[in-house]
Amino acid sequence: MFKGFNVTLDASDSLFPKDLSSYKNKIEKNKKHIQKSLKDFLLDDGSIDGEKLKQEWFPDLKNTHVFISHSHRDIDLAERLACWLYDNFKIRSFIDSHVWGYANDLLKELDNKYAYSPTNSIYDYDIRNETTSHVHMMLSSALNEMIDRCECLFFLNTDNAIKNIALSSQVDDHRTASPWIMSELVTSTIIRKKQNITRVSKLNESVLEKSTSSDSAINNNLIIQHKAPINHLIKLDNKKLEGWEIFNFSKDYNALTWLYNIYTGEKFEISDLGIISAS
Protein backbone atom coordinates (compact mmCIF):
# COMPACT_ATOMS: atom_id res chain seq x y z
CA MET A 1 0.00 0.00 0.00
CA PHE A 2 1.27 3.45 -0.94
CA LYS A 3 -1.54 5.85 0.04
CA GLY A 4 -4.67 5.64 2.17
CA PHE A 5 -7.73 7.87 1.80
CA ASN A 6 -10.48 8.80 4.27
CA VAL A 7 -13.48 8.92 1.91
CA THR A 8 -16.73 10.68 2.85
CA LEU A 9 -19.41 10.39 0.18
CA ASP A 10 -22.95 11.46 -0.54
CA ALA A 11 -24.53 8.32 -1.99
CA SER A 12 -27.23 10.36 -3.73
CA ASP A 13 -24.67 12.30 -5.77
CA SER A 14 -25.11 11.92 -9.54
CA LEU A 15 -21.38 11.19 -9.76
CA PHE A 16 -22.03 7.49 -9.15
CA PRO A 17 -23.73 5.00 -11.50
CA LYS A 18 -27.22 3.77 -10.66
CA ASP A 19 -27.21 0.51 -12.61
CA LEU A 20 -24.93 -2.07 -10.98
CA SER A 21 -26.38 -5.17 -12.65
CA SER A 22 -23.31 -5.85 -14.80
CA TYR A 23 -20.98 -5.44 -11.82
CA LYS A 24 -23.09 -7.68 -9.57
CA ASN A 25 -23.16 -10.39 -12.24
CA LYS A 26 -19.36 -10.45 -12.25
CA ILE A 27 -19.32 -10.78 -8.46
CA GLU A 28 -21.75 -13.71 -8.52
CA LYS A 29 -19.69 -15.51 -11.16
CA ASN A 30 -16.56 -15.04 -9.06
CA LYS A 31 -18.33 -16.33 -5.95
CA LYS A 32 -19.49 -19.50 -7.71
CA HIS A 33 -15.95 -20.10 -8.94
CA ILE A 34 -14.45 -19.70 -5.46
CA GLN A 35 -16.89 -21.74 -3.41
CA LYS A 36 -15.97 -25.39 -3.50
CA SER A 37 -16.92 -28.30 -1.28
CA LEU A 38 -14.69 -29.08 1.69
CA LYS A 39 -13.97 -32.51 0.25
CA ASP A 40 -11.77 -30.82 -2.36
CA PHE A 41 -9.41 -29.71 0.44
CA LEU A 42 -9.05 -32.98 2.39
CA LEU A 43 -5.57 -34.42 2.91
CA ASP A 44 -4.82 -38.16 3.01
CA ASP A 45 -5.24 -38.32 6.79
CA GLY A 46 -8.68 -36.69 6.63
CA SER A 47 -7.53 -33.26 7.82
CA ILE A 48 -8.09 -30.06 5.82
CA ASP A 49 -5.35 -28.41 3.76
CA GLY A 50 -5.65 -24.90 5.22
CA GLU A 51 -3.37 -23.24 2.67
CA LYS A 52 -5.21 -24.67 -0.33
CA LEU A 53 -8.56 -23.78 1.22
CA LYS A 54 -7.41 -20.20 1.84
CA GLN A 55 -6.14 -19.83 -1.73
CA GLU A 56 -9.49 -20.94 -3.16
CA TRP A 57 -11.90 -19.18 -0.79
CA PHE A 58 -9.86 -16.01 -0.29
CA PRO A 59 -8.01 -15.66 -3.61
CA ASP A 60 -4.99 -13.41 -3.95
CA LEU A 61 -6.47 -11.26 -6.71
CA LYS A 62 -3.75 -9.82 -8.92
CA ASN A 63 -3.83 -6.53 -10.82
CA THR A 64 -6.10 -4.87 -8.25
CA HIS A 65 -5.43 -1.18 -7.63
CA VAL A 66 -7.65 -0.16 -4.70
CA PHE A 67 -8.75 -1.86 -1.48
CA ILE A 68 -12.15 -0.53 -0.34
CA SER A 69 -12.70 -0.86 3.42
CA HIS A 70 -16.26 -0.26 4.58
CA SER A 71 -19.12 -1.25 6.85
CA HIS A 72 -21.20 -4.15 5.55
CA ARG A 73 -24.17 -1.77 5.71
CA ASP A 74 -22.49 0.37 3.04
CA ILE A 75 -21.98 -2.41 0.48
CA ASP A 76 -24.14 -0.59 -2.10
CA LEU A 77 -22.07 2.60 -1.73
CA ALA A 78 -18.82 0.60 -1.97
CA GLU A 79 -19.99 -1.11 -5.16
CA ARG A 80 -21.05 2.21 -6.71
CA LEU A 81 -17.62 3.66 -5.93
CA ALA A 82 -15.94 0.58 -7.42
CA CYS A 83 -18.05 0.89 -10.59
CA TRP A 84 -17.24 4.60 -10.90
CA LEU A 85 -13.50 3.95 -10.48
CA TYR A 86 -13.53 1.29 -13.19
CA ASP A 87 -15.81 3.12 -15.63
CA ASN A 88 -13.77 6.34 -15.47
CA PHE A 89 -10.21 5.19 -14.85
CA LYS A 90 -10.13 1.39 -15.40
CA ILE A 91 -9.14 1.14 -11.73
CA ARG A 92 -10.00 -2.29 -10.29
CA SER A 93 -11.21 -2.43 -6.70
CA PHE A 94 -11.19 -5.12 -4.03
CA ILE A 95 -14.30 -4.86 -1.82
CA ASP A 96 -13.59 -6.52 1.49
CA SER A 97 -17.16 -7.51 2.38
CA HIS A 98 -17.31 -9.78 -0.66
CA VAL A 99 -14.87 -12.11 1.10
CA TRP A 100 -16.64 -11.67 4.44
CA GLY A 101 -19.57 -13.42 2.79
CA TYR A 102 -17.30 -16.23 1.69
CA ALA A 103 -16.05 -16.57 5.28
CA ASN A 104 -19.57 -16.90 6.67
CA ASP A 105 -20.46 -19.53 4.09
CA LEU A 106 -17.27 -21.44 4.86
CA LEU A 107 -17.93 -21.28 8.61
CA LYS A 108 -21.42 -22.69 8.13
CA GLU A 109 -20.09 -25.58 6.05
CA LEU A 110 -17.37 -26.37 8.61
CA ASP A 111 -19.75 -26.15 11.55
CA ASN A 112 -22.38 -28.33 9.91
CA LYS A 113 -19.73 -30.96 9.24
CA TYR A 114 -17.71 -30.89 12.47
CA ALA A 115 -19.66 -29.07 15.21
CA TYR A 116 -23.31 -30.00 14.68
CA SER A 117 -24.92 -32.89 16.57
CA PRO A 118 -27.99 -34.22 14.72
CA THR A 119 -28.99 -36.12 17.84
CA ASN A 120 -29.25 -33.03 20.03
CA SER A 121 -29.79 -30.51 17.20
CA ILE A 122 -27.14 -28.25 18.70
CA TYR A 123 -23.61 -27.06 17.83
CA ASP A 124 -20.67 -27.90 20.07
CA TYR A 125 -19.45 -24.62 21.59
CA ASP A 126 -15.75 -25.56 21.78
CA ILE A 127 -15.63 -26.85 18.20
CA ARG A 128 -17.44 -23.71 17.03
CA ASN A 129 -14.75 -21.59 18.68
CA GLU A 130 -12.05 -23.58 16.90
CA THR A 131 -13.63 -23.37 13.44
CA THR A 132 -14.26 -19.65 13.88
CA SER A 133 -10.63 -19.08 14.92
CA HIS A 134 -9.30 -20.91 11.84
CA VAL A 135 -11.57 -19.14 9.35
CA HIS A 136 -11.12 -15.68 10.86
CA MET A 137 -7.33 -16.08 10.92
CA MET A 138 -7.37 -17.10 7.25
CA LEU A 139 -9.62 -14.15 6.43
CA SER A 140 -7.51 -11.70 8.42
CA SER A 141 -4.25 -12.80 6.77
CA ALA A 142 -5.89 -12.73 3.31
CA LEU A 143 -7.19 -9.19 3.86
CA ASN A 144 -3.79 -8.01 5.12
CA GLU A 145 -2.11 -9.50 2.06
CA MET A 146 -4.59 -7.69 -0.20
CA ILE A 147 -3.98 -4.36 1.57
CA ASP A 148 -0.26 -4.90 1.01
CA ARG A 149 -0.76 -5.81 -2.67
CA CYS A 150 -3.13 -2.94 -3.54
CA GLU A 151 -1.53 0.47 -4.02
CA CYS A 152 -4.36 2.43 -2.38
CA LEU A 153 -6.78 1.95 0.49
CA PHE A 154 -10.11 3.80 0.33
CA PHE A 155 -11.88 3.81 3.71
CA LEU A 156 -15.58 4.70 3.46
CA ASN A 157 -16.06 6.88 6.52
CA THR A 158 -19.81 6.77 7.22
CA ASP A 159 -21.99 6.76 10.32
CA ASN A 160 -22.24 3.00 9.87
CA ALA A 161 -18.46 2.60 10.10
CA ILE A 162 -17.30 5.24 12.61
CA LYS A 163 -18.75 6.81 15.75
CA ASN A 164 -17.20 9.80 17.52
CA ILE A 165 -17.58 8.61 21.09
CA ALA A 166 -15.36 8.51 24.16
CA LEU A 167 -15.04 6.94 27.57
CA SER A 168 -16.34 9.12 30.41
CA SER A 169 -14.38 12.38 30.91
CA GLN A 170 -12.27 11.77 27.77
CA VAL A 171 -12.47 13.72 24.54
CA ASP A 172 -14.41 12.25 21.63
CA ASP A 173 -12.49 9.67 19.64
CA HIS A 174 -12.98 7.78 16.40
CA ARG A 175 -14.33 4.34 17.24
CA THR A 176 -15.81 1.45 15.31
CA ALA A 177 -17.90 -1.52 16.40
CA SER A 178 -16.45 -3.60 13.55
CA PRO A 179 -13.36 -5.66 14.43
CA TRP A 180 -12.64 -6.01 10.69
CA ILE A 181 -12.61 -2.26 10.08
CA MET A 182 -10.41 -1.80 13.15
CA SER A 183 -8.00 -4.47 11.90
CA GLU A 184 -7.80 -3.01 8.38
CA LEU A 185 -7.21 0.54 9.63
CA VAL A 186 -4.50 -0.58 12.05
CA THR A 187 -2.87 -2.60 9.26
CA SER A 188 -2.89 0.49 7.04
CA THR A 189 -0.88 2.40 9.67
CA ILE A 190 1.92 -0.18 9.97
CA ILE A 191 2.12 -1.88 6.56
CA ARG A 192 5.07 -1.17 4.26
CA LYS A 193 4.56 1.81 1.96
CA LYS A 194 5.32 0.94 -1.66
CA GLN A 195 4.32 1.89 -5.19
CA ASN A 196 3.26 -0.72 -7.73
CA ILE A 197 4.74 1.19 -10.67
CA THR A 198 7.86 3.27 -11.18
CA ARG A 199 7.22 7.01 -10.84
CA VAL A 200 9.63 9.91 -11.22
CA SER A 201 9.34 12.69 -8.65
CA LYS A 202 9.43 16.37 -9.60
CA LEU A 203 11.69 17.73 -6.86
CA ASN A 204 11.71 21.43 -7.72
CA GLU A 205 8.16 22.11 -8.84
CA SER A 206 5.13 23.16 -6.85
CA VAL A 207 2.44 20.64 -6.10
CA LEU A 208 -0.31 20.40 -8.67
CA GLU A 209 -3.48 21.84 -7.18
CA LYS A 210 -6.69 21.52 -9.18
CA SER A 211 -9.31 20.72 -6.59
CA THR A 212 -12.95 21.82 -6.82
CA SER A 213 -14.35 23.83 -4.64
CA SER A 214 -26.83 8.74 15.78
CA ASP A 215 -26.99 7.18 18.91
CA SER A 216 -27.40 3.37 19.13
CA ALA A 217 -30.35 1.96 20.99
CA ILE A 218 -29.50 0.06 24.16
CA ASN A 219 -30.07 -3.66 23.63
CA ASN A 220 -28.75 -7.05 24.61
CA ASN A 221 -26.43 -7.42 21.61
CA LEU A 222 -22.70 -7.47 22.30
CA ILE A 223 -21.11 -4.24 21.01
CA ILE A 224 -17.41 -3.64 21.52
CA GLN A 225 -16.09 -0.29 20.35
CA HIS A 226 -12.53 -0.30 18.96
CA LYS A 227 -10.31 2.71 18.39
CA ALA A 228 -10.24 3.42 14.66
CA PRO A 229 -7.05 5.17 13.51
CA ILE A 230 -7.96 7.39 10.55
CA ASN A 231 -5.84 10.52 11.04
CA HIS A 232 -3.14 9.13 8.71
CA LEU A 233 -5.66 8.84 5.85
CA ILE A 234 -6.02 11.65 3.30
CA LYS A 235 -9.52 13.14 3.05
CA LEU A 236 -11.57 12.65 -0.12
CA ASP A 237 -15.18 13.59 -0.80
CA ASN A 238 -17.54 13.82 -3.76
CA LYS A 239 -16.18 17.19 -4.92
CA LYS A 240 -12.59 16.00 -4.85
CA LEU A 241 -13.47 12.83 -6.74
CA GLU A 242 -15.28 14.95 -9.31
CA GLY A 243 -12.21 17.17 -9.61
CA TRP A 244 -10.06 14.09 -10.16
CA GLU A 245 -12.42 12.95 -12.92
CA ILE A 246 -12.37 16.37 -14.63
CA PHE A 247 -8.60 16.93 -14.64
CA ASN A 248 -7.41 13.38 -15.23
CA PHE A 249 -7.10 11.83 -18.69
CA SER A 250 -5.23 8.66 -17.74
CA LYS A 251 -6.18 5.13 -16.70
CA ASP A 252 -5.34 2.57 -13.95
CA TYR A 253 -2.07 3.39 -12.10
CA ASN A 254 -1.57 6.52 -14.19
CA ALA A 255 -4.92 7.81 -12.94
CA LEU A 256 -3.81 7.14 -9.37
CA THR A 257 -0.69 9.22 -10.03
CA TRP A 258 -2.95 12.15 -10.93
CA LEU A 259 -4.85 11.59 -7.68
CA TYR A 260 -1.60 11.67 -5.67
CA ASN A 261 -0.42 14.85 -7.41
CA ILE A 262 -3.70 16.67 -6.91
CA TYR A 263 -4.53 15.80 -3.31
CA THR A 264 -1.62 14.17 -1.45
CA GLY A 265 1.29 16.59 -1.89
CA GLU A 266 3.26 14.16 -4.06
CA LYS A 267 5.00 15.56 -7.15
CA PHE A 268 5.37 12.90 -9.82
CA GLU A 269 6.28 13.39 -13.47
CA ILE A 270 3.21 12.81 -15.61
CA SER A 271 5.20 12.05 -18.75
CA ASP A 272 7.08 9.08 -17.28
CA LEU A 273 4.19 6.81 -16.42
CA GLY A 274 4.72 4.03 -18.90
CA ILE A 275 7.38 2.18 -16.93
CA ILE A 276 5.81 -0.66 -14.99
CA SER A 277 7.62 -2.46 -12.21
CA ALA A 278 6.65 -5.71 -10.52
CA SER A 279 5.30 -5.34 -7.02
Main sheet properties: 5 strands, parallel
Rg over CA atoms: 21 Å
The first-to-last residue Cα distance is 10 Å
Poorly predicted runs: 205-218, 272-279
Number of strand elements: 10
Q: Give the helix level as a range of percent.
A: 40-55%
Shape field = globular
Query: What is the string of SSEs from the N terminus onward?
Result: EHHEHEHEEHEEEHEEHH
Structural class: alpha/beta
Mean pLDDT: 81
Q: What is the strand arrangement across the widest sheet?
A: 3-2-6-1-10
Describe this protein's structure.
It is a single chain. The protein has helices spanning 21-34, 50-57, 75-89, 96-114, 125-149, 179-190, 238-247, 252-263, and strands at 3-8, 66-69, 93-95, 116-117, 122-123, 152-156, 163-165, 173-176, 226-227, 234-237. A hairpin with a 7-residue loop joins strand 7 and strand 8 (173-176). The protein starts with a strand and ends in a 16-residue tail after the last helix. The protein is of the alpha/beta class and 279 residues long. A five-stranded parallel β-sheet has the order 3-2-6-1-10, with helices on both faces. A three-stranded antiparallel β-sheet has the order 7-8-9. Strands 4-5 form a two-stranded antiparallel sheet. Helices cover 41% and strands 13% of the residues.
Concise summary:
This protein has 279 residues and is of the alpha/beta class. The protein contains 8 helices and 10 strands.
